[in-house]
Amino acid sequence: MQNDTPRPGDVDIVQRIVDGDVNAFELLVKRHQALVLRIVTRHLPNQEVEETVQEVFIRAYGSLPAFRATGDFSHWLSAIAVRTCYDYWRKAYRAREIPLSALTDKHQQWLENVMSAQLEESSAPKGYRSEAGEVLDWALARLSAEDRMVLELIYFEGHSVKEAARLLGWSAANVKVRSFRARKKLKKMLKGISSRAGQGGAHEKG
Amino acid sequence: MKKVEYRLEALKKILFQAYHQKEKPELGDRLRMHIMDRVRKMGPLQVKPDPLTLFGQFVWRLTPVTSLLIMISLAVLLEFDFTPDYNVLISFVSDAEEISLAQLLPL
């Protein structure tokens, strides 16, 4: 037999929670867990994901009375998730918890291979992928928390300036300027390591 | 120069793919349980009323004091003798030209 009860909307559930029904929050967690997990996984290291996803939902719960019924709940929650990730990076950079070590021999070797053989990621073995991720982390760690978030949102995830500004709670002009500067910094960094790796590969071949 | 640019583009492409191929940890029910434990510990939300409601509450709280002040003022006014003021008014109306300070003040 089919259940004809209409699925309550997010706004109705929010109203129930605000009226004191704490357990109704579980419905929202179930519905939006995958979305928050996807956002947090993209921005943070894997070991920080679980704690941060919890933090996002706790923040959302505390802010529910401020949620406007006219807005989309998932958009509202996405903004909380992005801002929680940004706060994580701000704290981490302030506490100098970001490792700023130089690229290891393994990474240099990987870069040389990439530069010389033009190995496509899709055809690369699994270990190759993890090294690409580590090199990416190395590069992003050299940017500020602000530059890192803007770059990830606009360049890697393809959000518009307006959308990134909404997610971060910044002005569009600020996002535009930061995005331009961050891309320039990353390009300079990648140019440096790719030319070094290119030279290394050429020397080995010679 | 062109070679460096070409290498850079290849590297960018690989890093872009690496960003999107990050493995997603499996959290599922355990995560939901932890969140709900924390939420239940926090308890029901304390909804802060908007400033207009707060103002309304403040005004209503002052109502008994205001009513009492009005009643006291009324009682004081009723106890007061209005006759001198009435006389002054009559003197103004009846003989406005001859009015003087001596007439107004009971000297």
The number of strands of chain A is 0
| Principal-axis shape of chain A | elongated
First-last Cα distance of chain B: 111 Å
Structural class of chain A: mainly alpha
Order of helices and strands of chain B: HHHHH
Q: Into which percentage range does the β-strand content of chain A fall? A: under 5%
How many domain units of chain B? 1
Number of helical segments of chain A?
9
Main beta-sheet annotation of chain A: none
Domains of chain A (count): 2
Assigned CATH superfamily of the largest domain in chain A: Winged helix-like DNA-binding domain superfamily/Winged helix DNA-binding domain
Distance between the termini of chain A: 74 Å
Radius of gyration of chain A, taken over Cα atoms and rounded to an integer in Å = 21 Å
CATH architecture annotation name of the largest domain in chain A: Orthogonal Bundle
CATH topology of the largest domain in chain A: Arc Repressor Mutant, subunit A
The amount of beta strand of chain B, in percent, is under 5%
| CATH class (first level) name of the largest domain in chain A | Mainly Alpha
Mean pLDDT of chain B, to the nearest integer, reads 78
The Cα radius of gyration of chain B reads 42 Å
Specify the biggest β-sheet of chain B. none
Structure explained in plain terms:
The complex is a heterodimer of chains A (206) and B (107). Helix content of chain A is 73%, strand content 0%. Chain A is built from nine helices and no strands. Chain A is elongated, with a radius of gyration of 21 Å. Chain B has one domain. Helix content of chain B is 74%, strand content 0%. Chain B contains five helices and no strands. The longest helix of chain B is centred in the middle third of the chain and has 29 residues, at 51-79. Chain B is elongated, with a radius of gyration of 42 Å. The termini of chain B are far apart. The mean pLDDT of chain B is 78. At the A-B interface, helix 2, helix 3, helix 5, helix 6 and helix 9 of A face helix 1 and helix 2 of B.
